[in-house]
Fold each of these.
Amino acid sequence: MGTGAGPSEGDLMAGLAADAVPGAFDLAAPGYDLLVGANPGYHRELRRAATALGIADSGAGRRLLDLGCGTGASTAALLSVAPRAEIIGVDASAGMLLRAARKPWPDNVSFVHARAEGLTTLGPFDGIFAAYLIRNLADPDPVLATIHGLLKPRARFVAHEYSVRDSPVAGAIWTAVCWTVIIPAGVVVTRSPKLYTYLWRSVVSFDGVRALRDRLRRNGFTDVRALPACGWQRGILHTFVGQA
C-alpha cells in the first residue's frame, strides 16, 4: 500500500474489528478531547468542512444531523456555522456521547445514542455531517443509502474523512505520524494501543478519494466532489460533498 513499515498484517487483523470500535471509543472517551486538541488544525478543519453543507441564514428553520458526533467537536463545528439550526448529534459510543452531553449547549442541540446502521426515522434533514465515520463502518453502502433517504431533496451530505490510498506519499506521511506521534500518545492517555493501531490500519485500507466519490454516487448522491484539507493533513484528510 506504499505506507511504510509497521506490525504484521496478521497482528493488526487480530486487533480491533470494526464492530468493536464503539466499545473502544467508550474506553478512550476520557482522554479523547485532549488527544484531538493536540492535532494542529483539527477544529479549524472541522469548521471548514461544516461550511460545505451550505446552510444559509445561520440555519434558521433547518434541521441538521451530526452522525458519529463523538464528544461533540463536530457538533460544535456545525453550531459555529448554523447557530440557529436544530442540531441532533448521534453516536454509537455511549462513553463518547456522555462526554458530549456534559458540555454546555444551547437548547437547539440534542444527542441520541444509536448506531448509524439503524437510523431510519430521524429525518428529514436539511444537511447531514459525518466526521471520521464512514471508514469505521463494517459496510458503508447501506448506511450511505440510509443517509441519502434521510435528506430532503437537494440537501447536502458532507463526510470529513481520511483517505490516503491514492497517494503513496500521503500514505507514508500518515504512517510516520501514526507510529511516531498518534499511537504513542494514545497509549499514554488510554493505556491501550488497540484503538490507535486500528486508526492507522483503517485509514490505509480505506477507499481512495476516487473510490469514495464513486461510492457516494452509487448510493444516489449527485454533484459529488472532494475538497482538500490544509496544513500537514493536506492529501490525507478530505471533505467529501454530495447532494441528495
Amino acid sequence: MNRQITQEESEQLFRFCRRHYVYHYDVQIELVDHLASAIEEQWEQNPILSFDEGLKNSFKKFGIHGFSKIKSQKEKELRRKYNRLLWHFMLDFYRWPKVITTFVCTLGLFLLFQLIEQSRWIILGYLVLLTVGTMFYYFGIHIKTRLKIKPGKSFLLATNITELLRLLF
C-alpha cells in the first residue's frame, strides 16, 4: 500500500510555498498539488523516505530559481483563465432585460442632453460618477461575493480585479 500525503503534510506544503514567495492561494494550490504528486511518486519507489527528504528532492527539481519559473507560468495561466471568467461575467451581466434597460437609459440621457443645454456638464459628471460607482460595485464587490473568496487568503483573481479597477480609474 502506497503512502499518501496527510492533511498536516499538506498544510506544511502550503507553508513551504509561502516561505518561497508564492503568496496567492490559487497558485499555491497548483504548486502543492505538484509537490504532493512528486513526493508520492518518490514514496512508490522508496517507501522509507521521509516527508522532508521527499520535499527536498522535489524542490531540487525546480532548479536554482526555485518556484519562480513555474510560479510565473501558473500565474499566466490563471490570469488568462480569470480574464475569460471576468469577460464571461460582464457578458452575462448584459443579457436581454439589461440591454433594453441600458438602451432606454441611454436614450433618456440623450433626450435630456437635447433639452437642457446649460447643465450638460453637471449631468455628464453625474453620469461618470454613476458609471464608476456601478463598475466598482460590480467588479469590486459583486464578483468577489459571487465567487465566495475565502477571507485571509490572497487570490490572483482578486489581484486581477484590483489591477483592472486601478487601470480604469
